[in-house]
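REQUEST FORM: STRUCTURE PREDICTION
Request ID: SP-0412
Submitted by: Lab K.M.
Chain count: 1
Length (residues): 284
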Amino acid sequence: MLTGTLNLKLLLTQYSQGVAVTWGLVLLENIMLALIPLLIGFSIDNLLEGVADQLILLAIIMVLLTGVAVLRRVYDTRMYGAMKVALGLELDQRNLYLNVSTRSARLDMSRELVSFLEDDVPELITGVTQIIISLAILSSFGLGLAMNAAGMTLTMLLLYTFFHRSFLRLNQALNNQTERQVALLTRGFHTSLNRHLSLLLRWEVKLSDREAILYGLIFLLVTGFIVSNLWLATAIPDISAGTIFTIITYSWEFVQAALVLPMTLQGLTRLHEITERINSKKVV
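STATUS: Completed
RESULT:
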């Protein structure tokens, strides 16, 4: 039984052991995953010298990675599934006084809390792990490479702050309209349903447009970062093919990891609105 405000903190407290296990496996999986490009670079140089030691190590790490990844996904499905059931039952018990339309919508929304822990947080762990390892490896080849990466990340986060309020407002409008859906279907008026679906589309389009602008600006930053690091890498004296591959690969890995940050922040913005809604006795 869940007691207290229904939010991420409550779920993490109630299922702390299960979450610790799955996030630990995620961390282990991503440490090994983040090392793959480095090992490939070493293997290239090693094989060009007629030696296969690094290639054997690469194969061992990839087999271990496969085992951890499979185990984590099998465990995740069962643990987070139980969490969704418990949260859904508790929420419905607390909202018995509400109409069916609102209860149905809030039940669907509540599952997003668990989905965030199951899908978004592992992606965040992946991103943070890759960022730390990428920065360490890039700085070992040249401080300028790492400084470019750090500068891009800070600029990306600043960009998101300008979009935060609009994302919150648009998610609120979309969820308000979603809560009315079952009630409108019950009435059976075609005109009401047509207006409802048109309003849903309106808010979804506005959200999509904001996301497109944000990620368009972010990818312009990414373009400058990749071009700059490629230029710096080729300027390093006596650099080998394997080292160039490693630098460019980790630059791209860093980009992919850094993109998780604004996506996670956007998810938290939506969850903030949902958390307030499912704990509210107010009907829209």
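NOTES: The radius of gyration is 23 Å.
Reviewed by: T.R.
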